[in-house]
Design a protein that fits this description.
Layout lengths: L3 H15 L7 E7 L14 E6 L5 E10 L6 E11 L11 H4 L1 E3 L3 E3 L1 H8 L13 E4 L2 E7 L15 H19 L4 E10 L8 E10 L5 E8 L5 E11 L22 H4 L4 E10 L9 H7 L4 H20 L24 E2 L5 E8 L3 E7 L3 E7 L3 H4 L1 H4 L2 H9 L4 H19 L3 H7 E6 L3 E6 L4 E9 L2 E8 L4
Antiparallel strand pairs: 1-4, 1-9, 2-3, 3-4, 5-13, 6-7, 7-8, 8-10, 9-12, 10-11, 11-12, 13-16, 14-15, 15-16, 17-21, 18-19, 19-20, 20-21
């Protein structure tokens, strides 16, 4: 099959060669209506049919001609078409914090599995070059051209392999969350800002737009390692082109369900969960100058936690406004004046109460109108062995009397006190002394401070981790 990305290259290059006054790197209304089969080494005669429109734009179509063996009557077949020139602008911006991170629980898929089972294309078109990351928020992929590079050095739109690999990422996303092997059949607008190079690696961010029915719609953004947007494909329409014959690998499809942290999210103004591995190589470009200065001396491990926390808080800040938040991500400061506490500015200039927590895998951030604390812990027995350090005697008795397994009860108590320290603005050691765990159940814990205030901690267990949100009062 002649790939859609090659059809775009041929049509754009030929049309702009014939009409050099047109802007061939801004394409619109792209359609891929019919496969162009390439059988063996025999060349296929194809024509670029160009029609000038009333608005001055050019409609280019890749066509072939066939002839009936019975009647001898010939007819033209249109395989791909696009508009070059004065098309209506549909450029969409993706904020850098969203471009550089993938929210939610992620699935990693190895390139070897993708090209063996999911997108079985030839060697030249296997160009997702590291684990593809998927979540309900979309996909994040490292993409490149085949190595050694394609010998062509005059590609008008840049490397066709980069966008093609981004299409593969969207296809795998459809298989995972929609149980559908979908491929691109249309693009509303493709804009090439900086042609991608054959020797470089890029980051593709795939954003689901409409996934209720075919054609499913995605926006695709491709960045270089300096966070510069190289090209975008807006309104990529995808559907099953196999007539139902192609099916996802057995056991791979897992439709997106209700947010596993909904019991926490329902109690606050906003909540963001990131996996630390789901950050783009250019994620640090989303930091303010102040945030960058704090990042510079950090070790790799600490820097990863710090960076994911900053991105989570910036995304959280946007959740507190409307969908048209145009703030420059570098102007969203997420470190308070004391250089220690997290900060979540609202779009109106105010500040929300916020809290952030992380472990080696996850970063969790939440915001509310009243003080709160969050915590995330891997499921482990260690808190039970150390219970004498952070629990009073009566609290340890409640651990033993709880309907929960002792290790789980101790972990919830530990996590609740971690969250309480953040909500109350005190040191963890102070929380051990001043906060008492009064009740432990599977999804909720009740606590009291030494001055009589009631606290409620809500718990959720996801992916072998305990997530905790604590707020003041008995009915947050």
């Amino acid at each position: 099959m002649f790939p859609a990305v090659e059809a775009m290259e041929q049509l754009a290059a030929d049309t702009c060669g014939r009409f050099p006054e047109t802007d061939g790197r801004r394409l619109s209304d792209l359609r891929f209506d019919r496969f162009l089969r390439l059988d063996g080494p025999t060349p296929v005669a194809a024509t670029n049919r160009v029609e000038k429109k009333d608005d001055g734009s050019l409609r280019a179509a890749l066509t072939t001609r066939i002839q009936s063996k019975k009647t001898g009557i010939g007819r033209s077949l249109e395989h791909a078409s696009l508009t070059v020139g004065q098309a209506r602008s549909m450029d969409k911006a993706l904020s850098l914090d969203v471009a550089a991170s993938l929210a939610g629980i992620c699935t990693a898929v190895e390139p070897e599995r993708i090209y063996a089972d999911m997108v079985p294309f030839g060697p030249a078109y296997r160009n997702i070059c590291s684990d593809l990351l998927l979540s309900a928020d979309g996909a994040l992929a490292q993409v490149r051209s085949p190595q050694p590079p394609d010998p062509r050095n005059n590609l008008y739109l840049g490397s066709p392999y980069v966008l093609d690999a981004a299409f593969h990422a969207a296809c795998v996303w459809c298989q995972r969350y929609l149980n559908n092997v979908a491929f691109p059949v249309s693009i509303d607008q493709r804009t090439v800002f900086r042609p991608t190079r054959l020797e470089s690696v890029y980051t593709a961010r795939i954003v689901p737009v409409q996934t209720e029915k075919e054609p499913f719609v995605f926006d695709i953004f491709i960045y270089d390692d300096e966070s510069e947007l190289c090209e975008s494909a807006i309104g990529v329409g995808m559907r099953d082109v196999s007539g139902g014959r192609a099916r996802p690998s057995r056991g791979f499809s897992e439709p997106a369900e209700t947010d596993p942290l909904h019991s926490l999210a329902d109690r606050v103004a906003g909540l963001v969960l990131l996996e630390r591995k789901a950050l783009a190589p250019f994620a640090a470009a989303a930091l303010s100058e102040k945030e960058k200065r704090r990042l510079e001396p950090m070790t790799e491990q600490r820097a990863g936690a710090y960076l994911s926390a900053r991105l989570a808080l910036k995304r959280l800040s946007r959740m507190l406004g409307n969908s048209d938040d145009r703030r420059d991500v570098r102007q969203i400061e997420t470190v308070a004046e004391d250089g220690r506490r997290p900060m979540c500015p609202r779009p109106d200039g105010g500040r929300a109460f916020c809290s952030v927590a992380h472990d080696r895998r996850f970063t969790l951030a939440a915001a509310a109108e009243t003080p709160l604390g969050v915590d995330v812990e891997p499921l482990a027995d260690k808190p039970l062995a150390a219970a004498h350090l952070y629990l009073h005697a009566e609290e340890r008795a409640r651990i033993e009397q709880s309907s929960l397994a002792p290790a789980r009860a101790a972990l919830q108590a530990w996590s609740a006190k971690e969250a309480a320290a953040k909500a109350l603005g005190i040191d963890l050691a102070q929380a051990w002394e001043r906060v008492c765990v009064c009740l432990l159940s599977e999804k909720e814990s009740r606590l009291k401070t030494d001055d009589g205030r009631s606290l409620t901690a809500v718990h959720a267990t996801v992916e072998g981790h305990l997530f905790t949100l604590l707020t003041e009062g008995e009915n947050p």
